C-alpha cells in the first residue's frame, strides 16, 4: 500500500529514473534535436530532485536558466548549423566497449564507497530554517559570507562576455548602423528639401 | 683605493675587449695604459698604508657560495705579502703595457693584445688578493687562460699555437695537484678560507690522510699537493718544459708573464701557506731539493742555448729554483725579496732583449748578432744593468737577494740545505757566465747579421726605452733599499703575520751570522763567471768549440735540455696518443657509438616517434587518455586501501 | 558588525582589488578609445603591475583567513604573487610589438592577461574549495580566450577549442572531487577540511582520497603533468607566440602553488596517498617529455615538451614534503622561468615581415645572419640543458641534491637520465643554428623590450655562477612559510589576545 509518507521516496525514484534515462537518451539519440529535447527533460527532472530536497530556489533557477535560456539556445544552434553528427560520431564508436568498461569500474568503486559510507540512509537533509524561504536564506548569505565568490562569479561572467565579443565580433564595412547622436543632431534643413515643382515637368 | 687597484684592469679589459674595434687602437692603448698606471699608483699607496703603517685588512666583497657547511666569499685580503706582490705586478705590468705600445706598433690586433694584457693583470691581482683557495684558484686559472691567449697571440704561427697548448696542458698537471690540495685542505680543515686554515694549523699537526691502506701525514700531503701546483706555474724541474716554448709569444708577454709575475705565483702560493708549511718539514725538504736541482740544471742548459729569449727563459727557471729552495729552508722573506728584485731585472732583460730583437728585425738567434753596442747604446747600457743585477754584483739588486738566499740555505744546517747551497753556488757561477756570454755574443765582436738587416738596425723608440729605464731603476736600487724591510732587522715589522716562521726555523736570522767565506763566495763565483765568459767569447773565441769537443756528452746533454722533451715525448705523449687511439677505435667506435648513436639514441628516437603518434590531435583521444588515467589512478588507490572489501 | 567590509579590513587584498579595478578601468578606456589604445594600456599595465608589487610588499601578511575564510594572504602567497607579477609584466613586454607587427591589435589582449593574472592571484590565495574553484575558472576562462585570440588563424581557434573542452573536462573532475570531499566531510574550508580529514578512518578516508584524486587529476591538467598533458603541445603550437610565452611563464606556477597549498593543508594527513601520485606524475612527465621532445620539428611544440619535462623536475622537490624539497621546487621554477622568458623573446625576434617562424629548421644559419641572437639562444639552450656553469645547472643540481638527500635514488637516476636525453633536443637547436646552411635573414628591429628581456635572461644565465645562492633565501622563505602549520600561528595569536 502506498502511504503518504512514502510519497517523497516514490517521487525521488520517479525523477531519478527519468533523469538517468533521458540523460542516456541525450548521448544516444540519432537526431540532435531529440538530444536537446531530452536534455531539457533531464533538467526538469533534476529540478524536481532539488524541490524534493527543499531547495526550490535552485530548482527554479535551473528551470529558468538552463531550460529557458541555455537549452533553447542549444536548440537554435542545432537547428541553424547543419552539422552532420553521424560522421562525427563514427570514430568514437570504437571506444564504446572500453568506455563502458571504464565507466563500469568507476561506478563499482563509487558504489562501494557510497554504500559503505551512507548505508541505508537515503539522503542527507539540508538544514532548513522553517521561518524563511530558501530564497531569503541565499539572499542573506550571498552578499555577506559569500560576497567574494559572488564577485568572482561576476568577473568570470565579465571574462565570458569579453571573450564572446573578442572572438566573434567583427566590424563589417557595409553595415548601416543607427547613430543616435547624428539623428538627434539632424535639423530640418538636412532632412528636408522643399522644391517648387513646376506643373507638368516633374523633378 | 684597494678596489681601484684591483679592478681597474678588469674594467679596462672589458671596455677595450668589447669596444676595442670601435674606439680604435690609439684609444685602446691609452685606456689600458692609463688604467694600469692608475692601478700601479694605488698599489704604491697601498704599500705605504699597509706596510709602513702596518694596516693589513680583509675586505669583504660579497658572498659567493653558501651551501651547507661550505661557504666561500669574494673578498680581498690586503696584507703585506699581497701588497708586495701587487706592487711587483702592477709596476712591471705598467712598464710592459707602455712598452707594448711601441713593440706591437706593427701588429694588426693591438686592441686585443692590450685587452689580454689587462685581463692577465686582473687575474694575477685576483690571485694574490684572494682570501680563500677557491678565489685563488679562479685567479690561478685566469692567469693560465690569459697566458694561453698571449702565448698563442700570433695564432698564424704554428709553433705559437703548439707552445700555447703545451703551456696549457703541462699546467693542467700542476693545476690538478692544486685542486687535489684544495680538496685535501677542505677535508682536513672544513674550510677553504685562509684565516680559518692558518688559525687551525696547529690543531691538525697530527692528522693523517688514509689512502690505499696507508696513513700519510696530512699537512705533508697538502704541502706536496700545493707544491705540485706551484711547480706547474713556476716551471720547476719536471713541469718546466712549457716555459722555454712559451717564448713563442710576443716579448712583452715573456717579460710580464714568464719572468716577472705568473711564474712567481707558485712562490707566492708557498709563501702564502708558510703557516702550513712550517708544520710540514718533509714537504719543505722536497721543495728545497726540487728548487736546488732546478736552479742547477736550468743554469747548465742556459749556458748552451743560442736563442736570446730562451737563454733568459732558462735563467728565469733557474732563478725560480733559487726562490723555491729559499722557501724550502723557511727563508720566505728572502724568497719574496728575490722574487721582487728578480721581477725588475728579469723584466728589464726581457724587454731589453725585445728591444734587440726589434732592432734586428725579429732575429732571435745570438749567432746572427754581434757588435750591436755602438748602434743601440741605450739598450746596451740597460742590458748591462740587468746583467749585473742577475749576476749578483754588489750594489745591484740581485746581489742582496741572491746572497741572502744562499746564506739562508747554508744557515739551515741540514743536508738538503747544504745541497741547495752548493747547487746555488754552482748556479751562481754559471749564471754570471751565461749572462755575459749573452752580452758578448749580442753586443760585441763583429756583426754576423746579413747586410740588409744591419742597415735597418736602429735604437728603439722612446716609448720602449722609458719603461726600461723605470725597470732599470728597480734593478739598481730595489735591492739595497728594501734589504732591511724584507730580510733585515725590520723584517718582523715589515711582514707582520703574513709570513709565519717557527722560531727554530728562522734561517734568515741565522743567515746574518754565517762565516765570512759564505758571504763572499757568491760574489767570487759571479765575478769569475763573468771573467770566464770574457775569456771564452771575446778574447779567445776558439775556446768554446774546443771545450765543446772535450765535453761532448755534457754539452749535448745541456744543449738538448737534458732530453726532457724527448723523454716526455716517448713516455707521455706517445703512450697517451696510443691509448687515445685505442680508446677511440675500440672504445668509442665499437662500444660507445655502437650502443650510443646507433643503438640507444636511435632507440630514443623510436620511442619519441611512438609517443608522438599518440598525439593524434583529436580531442576525444586526449579526453580519453585523461579519463583512463583518472580511473587508473582511482582504481590503484582503491585496491591499495580497500583490497579486502572486494 | 566585525565582518564589515571596510577598505582597511581588506588591506591584505589591496593588490587584488587594485588589479580588479585596473581591469574595469582598462575596459572602459579601451571601449572608448578603441584598439589603438592597446599600446597605452600595455604600458599602463606594466606600471600598474609595478604598483601591485608595491601593494603586495606592504600587505599585512598572516595565516588568518580573510573574507569569511575564502582567502589567505601569507608570505608564501605573497612571494608566489611577486614572481607572477614579474611573469605578467614580461608577458606584456613580449606581446606588444608582436601585436602591432602582425596587425592583430585588440585592446582586450592586455585586459585578458590581467584577468588571468587576477585569477592566478586568487588561486594562490585560495583557502576554501569554493574560492579555489572560482579563481581557477576565472583564470582558465581567460586562458581559453587567449589561446583562441588570434581568431583568423585556424590553428589558434582549434587550440582554443581544444583547450576549452579539455579544460572543461578537468573542471568537471575537480568539481566531482570537491563534491566528494563535501559529501564525506561536510565542509569546504581548508582548515576545517584538514581537521576532519586527519580524524577519518577506513572507508570514509578512502572516499576523501577519491575526492582528492579527482582534484589532483584536474590540477595535473592545469600544470600539464603527464598523462594529463595532451593539450599542451597543441595549444602551445596553435596559440599565437606571445600567448604561448604567457602560458609558459605564469599559469603553471599558480596552479602548482594551488596544488601545494592543498597538499600541505587539508590533505596533509593523506601524504602517503598523494605522494605516490606526485611521484608518478613527476616520473611520467620527465620521461615522456624527454622522449617525445626528440622528434618535434616545431619550436613551440618543443617548448611545450620542455615545459612538461621541467614541471616533472619541479615536482620532484614536492614528493617529499620537506622545506628543502619545496625550496628546490621554487628555486628551480624561478630559474626556469627566467630562461624561458629569454627563449621566447628570441623566438619572437625570428620573424620576416610580420610572420613568425616556428619550425626548428627556420633557425638554420642564425649564427651567420644574427650572431648575437644565435649566441643568446645558444647560451639559453645550454643553460636549459643544465650545463655548468650556467644557471640551469644550479636549478637541476639543487633539486637532485634534495632527491638524493631523501634517499630516493631511483627518482634521481630517472631525473638525470631524462635530462641527458632532453639535452639532445636543446643541443640540436644549437647545431641547427650554427652548422646548417643559412636561410634568409629575419626582419630587423627587435624592439627595446625584447632585447631587454633577452639581455637580462642571458646575463642571468651566465653570471648566476657568481652568486649561486642568490634566489635561494627567497625560495626558502616561501617554502618555510608554506610548511608552517597554521595551528601554531593561531595559538600564538590567542596568547597575544590574552
Secondary structure elements and their pairing?
The complex is a heterotrimer of chains A (203), B (646) and C (498).
Chain A: H1 7-28, H2 32-52, H3 56-80, H4 85-90, H5 96-118, H6 134-142, H7 147-168, H8 180-185, H9 188-191
Chain B: H1 2-52, E1 57-67, E2 70-78, H2 80-103, H3 110-129, H4 133-151, H5 158-189, H6 194-199, E3 208-211, E4 214-217, H7 218-233, H8 242-245, H9 251-260, H10 265-272, H11 274-277, H12 281-304, H13 308-328, H14 332-359, H15 377-391, H16 397-411, H17 415-443, H18 451-456, H19 462-486, H20 491-495, H21 507-511, H22 516-539, H23 543-550, H24 552-559, H25 564-614, H26 619-642
Antiparallel strand pairs in B: 1-2, 3-4
Helix pairs in contact in B: 1-2, 1-3, 2-3, 2-9, 2-14, 2-19, 3-4, 4-5, 5-7, 7-10, 7-12, 9-14, 12-13, 12-17, 12-24, 13-14, 13-16, 13-17, 14-15, 14-16, 14-19, 15-17, 15-19, 16-17, 16-19, 16-22, 17-22
Chain C: H1 14-33, H2 38-58, E1 65-66, E2 71-72, H3 75-102, H4 108-125, H5 129-147, H6 154-185, H7 190-199, H8 202-222, H9 231-238, H10 241-249, H11 251-264, H12 271-294, H13 299-319, H14 323-349, E3 351-352, E4 355-356, H15 366-369, H16 371-384, H17 391-405, H18 409-435, H19 448-463, H20 472-483, H21 486-497
Antiparallel strand pairs in C: 1-2, 3-4
Describe, in plain words, how this protein is organized in 3D.
The complex is a heterotrimer of chains A (203), B (646) and C (498). The termini of chain A are far apart. Chain A has helices spanning 7-28, 32-52, 56-80, 85-90, 96-118, 134-142, 147-168, 180-185, 188-191. Chain A is built from nine helices and no strands. In chain A, 68% of the residues lie in helices and 0% in strands. With 646 residues, chain B is mostly helical. Chain B is built from 26 helices and four strands. Chain B has helices spanning 2-52, 80-103, 110-129, 133-151, 158-189, 194-199, 218-233, 242-245, 251-260, 265-272, 274-277, 281-304, 308-328, 332-359, 377-391, 397-411, 415-443, 451-456, 462-486, 491-495, 507-511, 516-539, 543-550, 552-559, 564-614, 619-642; strands spanning 57-67, 70-78, 208-211, 214-217. The longest helix of chain B has 51 residues, at 2-52. The model of chain B has no long low-confidence stretch (mean pLDDT 83). Chain C has 498 residues and is an all-alpha fold. Helix content of chain C is 75%, strand content 2%. Chains in contact: A-B, A-C, B-C. Chains A and C meet through α5 and α7 of A and α1, α4, α5, α6 and α8 of C.
Amino acid at each position: 500500500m502506498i502511504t503518504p509518507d512514502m510519497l517523497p521516496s516514490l517521487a525521488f525514484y520517479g525523477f531519478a529514473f527519468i533523469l538517468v534515462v533521458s540523460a542516456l537518451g541525450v548521448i544516444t539519440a540519432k537526431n540532435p534535436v531529440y538530444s536537446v529535447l531530452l536534455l531539457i527533460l533531464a533538467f526538469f527532472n533534476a529540478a524536481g530532485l532539488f524541490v524534493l530536497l527543499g531547495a526550490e530556489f535552485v530548482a527554479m533557477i535551473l528551470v529558468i536558466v538552463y531550460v529557458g535560456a541555455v537549452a533553447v539556445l542549444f536548440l537554435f544552434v542545432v537547428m541553424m548549423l547543419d552539422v552532420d553528427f553521424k560522421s562525427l560520431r563514427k570514430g568514437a564508436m570504437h571506444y564504446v566497449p572500453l568506455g563502458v568498461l571504464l565507466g563500469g569500474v568507476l561506478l563499482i568503486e563509487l558504489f562501494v564507497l557510497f554504500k559503505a559510507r551512507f548505508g541505508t540512509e537515503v539522503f542527507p537533509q539540508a538544514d532548513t530554517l522553517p521561518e524563511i524561504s530558501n530564497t531569503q536564506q541565499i539572499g542573506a548569505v550571498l552578499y555577506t559570507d559569500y560576497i567574494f565568490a559572488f564577485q568572482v562569479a561576476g568577473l568570470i561572467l565579465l571574462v565570458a562576455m569579453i571573450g564572446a565579443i573578442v572572438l566573434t565580433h567583427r566590424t563589417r564595412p557595409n553595415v548601416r548602423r543607427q547613430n543616435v547622436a547624428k539623428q538627434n543632431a539632424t535639423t530640418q534643413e538636412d532632412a528636408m528639401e522643399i522644391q517648387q515643382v513646376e506643373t507638368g515637368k516633374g523633378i | 683605493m684597494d678596489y681601484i687597484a684591483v679592478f681597474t684592469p678588469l674594467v679596462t679589459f672589458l671596455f677595450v675587449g668589447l669596444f676595442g674595434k670601435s674606439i680604435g687602437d690609439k684609444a685602446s692603448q691609452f685606456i689600458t695604459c692609463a688604467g694600469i698606471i692608475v692601478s700601479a699608483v694605488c698599489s704604491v699607496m697601498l704599500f705605504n698604508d699597509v706596510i709602513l703603517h702596518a694596516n693589513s685588512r680583509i675586505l669583504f666583497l660579497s658572498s659567493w657560495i653558501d651551501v651547507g657547511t661550505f661557504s666561500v666569499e669574494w673578498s680581498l685580503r690586503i696584507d703585506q705579502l699581497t701588497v708586495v706582490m701587487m706592487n711587483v705586478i702592477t709596476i712591471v705590468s705598467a712598464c710592459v703595457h707602455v712598452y707594448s705600445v711601441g713593440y706591437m706598433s706593427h701588429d694588426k690586433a693591438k686592441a686585443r693584445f692590450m685587452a689580454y694584457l689587462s685581463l692577465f693583470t686582473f687575474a694575477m691581482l685576483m690571485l694574490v688578493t684572494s682570501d680563500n683557495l677557491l678565489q685563488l684558484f679562479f685567479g690561478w686559472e685566469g692567469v693560465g687562460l690569459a697566458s694561453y691567449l698571449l702565448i698563442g697571440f700570433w695564432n698564424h704561427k704554428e709553433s705559437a699555437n703548439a707552445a700555447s697548448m703545451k703551456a696549457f696542458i703541462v699546467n693542467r698537471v700542476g693545476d690538478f695537484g692544486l685542486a687535489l690540495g684544495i680538496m685535501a685542505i677542505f677535508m682536513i680543515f672544513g674550510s677553504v678560507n685562509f684565516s680559518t686554515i692558518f688559525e687551525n694549523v696547529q690543531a691538525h699537526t697530527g692528522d693523517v690522510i688514509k689512502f690505499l691502506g696507508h696513513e700519510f701525514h696530512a699537512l705533508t700531503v697538502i704541502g706536496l699537493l700545493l707544491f705540485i701546483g706551484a711547480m706547474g706555474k713556476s716551471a720547476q724541474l719536471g713541469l718546466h718544459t712549457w716555459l722555454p716554448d712559451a717564448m713563442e709569444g710576443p716579448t712583452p708577454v715573456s717579460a710580464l708573464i714568464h719572468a716577472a709575475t705568473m711564474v712567481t705565483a707558485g712562490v707566492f702560493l708557498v709563501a702564502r701557506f708558510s703557516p702550513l708549511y712550517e708544520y710540514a718539514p718533509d714537504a719543505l725538504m722536497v721543495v728545497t731539493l726540487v728548487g736546488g736541482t732546478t736552479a742547477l740544471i736550468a743554469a747548465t742548459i742556459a749556458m748552451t742555448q743560442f736563442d736570446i729569449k730562451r737563454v733568459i727563459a732558462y735563467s728565469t727557471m733557474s732563478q725560480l729554483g733559487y726562490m723555491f729552495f729559499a722557501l724550502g729552508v723557511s727563508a720566505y722573506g728572502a724568497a719574496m725579496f728575490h722574487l721582487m728584485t728578480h721581477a725588475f731585472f728579469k723584466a728589464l732583460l726581457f724587454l731589453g732583449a725585445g728591444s734587440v730583437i726589434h732592432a734586428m728585425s725579429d732575429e732571435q738567434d745570438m749567432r746572427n748578432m754581434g757588435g750591436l753596442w755602438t748602434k743601440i747604446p741605450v739598450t746596451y747600457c740597460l742590458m748591462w744593468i740587468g746583467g749585473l743585477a742577475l749576476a749578483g754584483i754588489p750594489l745591484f739588486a740581485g746581489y742582496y737577494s741572491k746572497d741572502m738566499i744562499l746564506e739562508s740555505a747554508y744557515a739551515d744546517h741540514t743536508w738538503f740545505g747544504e745541497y741547495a747551497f752548493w747547487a746555488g753556488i754552482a748556479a751562481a757561477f754559471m749564471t754570471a757566465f751565461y749572462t755575459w756570454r749573452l752580452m758578448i755574443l749580442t753586443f760585441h765582436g763583429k756583426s754576423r747579421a746579413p747586410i740588409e738587416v744591419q742597415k735597418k738596425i736602429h735604437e728603439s723608440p722612446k716609448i720602449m726605452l722609458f719603461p726600461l729605464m723605470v725597470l732599470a731603476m728597480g734593478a739598481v736600487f730595489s735591492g739595497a733599499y728594501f734589504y732591511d724591510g724584507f730580510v733585515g732587522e725590520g723584517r718582523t715589522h715589515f711582514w707582520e703575520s703574513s709570513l709565519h716562521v717557527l722560531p727554530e726555523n728562522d734561517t734568515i736570522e741565522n743567515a746574518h751570522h754565517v762565516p765570512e767565506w759564505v758571504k763572499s763566495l757568491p760574489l767570487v763565483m759571479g765575478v769569475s763567471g763573468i771573467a770566464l765568459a770574457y775569456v771564452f767569447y771575446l778574447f779567445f773565441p776558439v775556446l768554446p768549440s774546443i771545450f765543446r769537443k772535450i765535453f761532448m756528452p755534457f754539452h749535448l746533454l745541456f744543449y738538448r735540455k737534458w732530453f726532457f722533451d724527448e723523454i716526455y715525448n716517448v713516455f707521455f705523449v706517445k703512450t697517451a696518443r696510443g691509448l687515445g687511439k685505442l680508446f677511440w677505435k675500440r672504445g668509442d667506435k665499437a662500444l660507445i657509438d655502437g650502443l650510443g648513436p646507433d643503438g640507444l639514441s636511435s632507440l630514443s628516437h623510436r620511442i619519441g616517434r611512438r609517443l608522438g603518434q599518440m598525439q593524434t590531435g583529436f580531442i576525444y583521444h586526449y579526453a580519453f587518455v585523461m579519463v583512463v588515467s583518472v580511473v587508473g589512478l582511482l582504481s590503484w588507490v582503491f585496491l591499495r586501501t580497500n583490497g579486502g572489501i572486494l | 558588525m566585525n565582518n564589515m567590509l571596510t577598505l582597511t579590513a581588506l588591506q591584505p587584498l589591496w593588490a587584488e582589488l587594485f588589479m580588479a579595478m585596473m581591469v574595469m578601468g582598462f575596459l572602459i578606456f579601451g571601449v572608448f578609445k578603441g584598439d589603438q589604445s592597446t599600446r597605452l594600456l600595455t604600458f599602463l599595465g606594466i606600471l600598474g603591475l609595478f604598483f601591485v608589487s608595491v601593494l603586495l610588499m606592504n600587505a599585512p601578511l598572516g595565516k588568518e583567513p580573510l573574507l569569511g575564510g575564502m582567502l589567505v594572504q601569507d608570505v608564501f602567497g605573497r612571494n608566489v604573487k611577486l614572481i607572477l607579477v614579474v611573469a605578467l609584466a614580461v608577458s606584456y613586454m613580449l606581446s606588444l610589438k608582436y601585436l602591432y607587427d602582425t596587425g592583430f591589435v585588440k585592446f582586450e589582449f592586455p585586459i585578458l592577461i590581467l584577468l588571468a593574472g587576477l585569477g592566478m592571484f586568487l588561486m594562490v590565495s585560495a583557502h576554501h574549495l569554493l574560492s579555489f574553484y572560482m579563481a581557477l575558472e576565472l583564470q582558465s576562462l581567460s586562458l581559453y580566450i587567449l589561446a583562441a585570440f588570434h581568431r583568423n588563424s585556424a590553428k589558434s581557434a582549434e587550440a582554443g577549442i581544444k583547450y576549452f573542452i579539455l579544460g572543461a573536462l578537468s573542471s568537471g573532475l575537480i568539481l566531482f572531487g570537491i563534491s566528494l570531499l563535501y559529501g564525506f566531510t561536510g565542509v569546504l574550508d581548508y582548515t576545517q577540511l584538514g581537521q576532519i580529514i586527519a580524524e577519518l578512518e577506513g572507508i570514509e578516508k578512502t572516499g576523501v582520497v577519491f575526492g582528492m584524486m579527482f582534484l589532483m587529476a584536474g590540477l595535473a591538467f592545469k600544470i600539464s603533468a603527464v598523462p594529463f598533458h595532451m593539450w599542451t603541445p597543441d595549444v602551445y603550437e596553435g596559440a599565437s607566440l606571445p600567448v604561448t610565452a604567457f602560458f609558459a611563464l605564469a599559469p603553471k606556477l599558480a596552479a602548482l602553488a594551488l596544488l601545494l597549498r592543498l597538499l600541505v593543508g587539508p590533505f596533509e594527513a593523506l601524504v602517503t596517498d598523494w605522494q605516490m601520485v606526485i611521484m608518478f606524475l613527476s616520473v611520467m612527465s620527465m620521461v615522456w617529455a624527454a622522449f617525445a621532445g626528440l622528434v618535434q620539428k616545431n619550436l613551440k611544440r618543443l617548448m611545450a615538451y620542455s615545459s612538461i619535462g621541467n614541471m616533472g623536475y619541479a615536482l620532484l622537490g614536492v614528493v617529499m614534503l620537506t622545506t628543502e624539497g619545496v625550496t628546490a621546487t621554487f628555486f628551480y621554477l624561478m630559474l626556469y622561468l627566467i630562461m624561458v622568458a629569454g627563449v621566447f623573446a628570441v623566438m619572437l625576434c625570428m620573424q620576416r615581415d610580420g610572420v613568425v617562424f616556428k619550425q626548428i629548421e627556420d633557425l638554420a644559419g642564425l649564427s651567420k645572419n644574427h650572431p648575437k641572437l644565435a649566441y643568446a639562444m645558444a647560451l639559453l639552450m645550454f643553460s636549459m640543458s643544465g650545463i655548468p656553469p650556467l644557471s640551469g645547472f644550479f636549478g637541476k643540481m639543487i633539486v637532485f641534491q634534495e632527491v638524493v638527500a631523501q634517499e630516493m635514488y631511483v627518482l634521481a637516476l630517472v631525473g638525470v637520465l631524462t635530462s641527458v636525453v632532453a639535452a639532445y633536443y636543446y643541443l640540436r637547436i644549437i647545431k641547427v643554428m650554427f652548422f646548417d646552411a643559412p636561410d634568409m635573414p629575419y626582419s630587423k628591429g627587435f624592439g627595446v623590450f625584447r632585447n631587454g628581456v633577452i639581455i637580462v635572461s642571458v646575463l642571468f644565465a651566465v653570471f648566476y655562477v657568481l652568486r649561486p645562492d642568490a634566489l635561494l633565501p627567497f625560495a626558502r622563505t616561501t617554502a618555510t612559510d608554506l610548511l608552517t602549520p597554521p595551528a601554531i600561528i593561531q595559538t600564538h595569536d590567542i596568547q597575544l589576545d590574552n
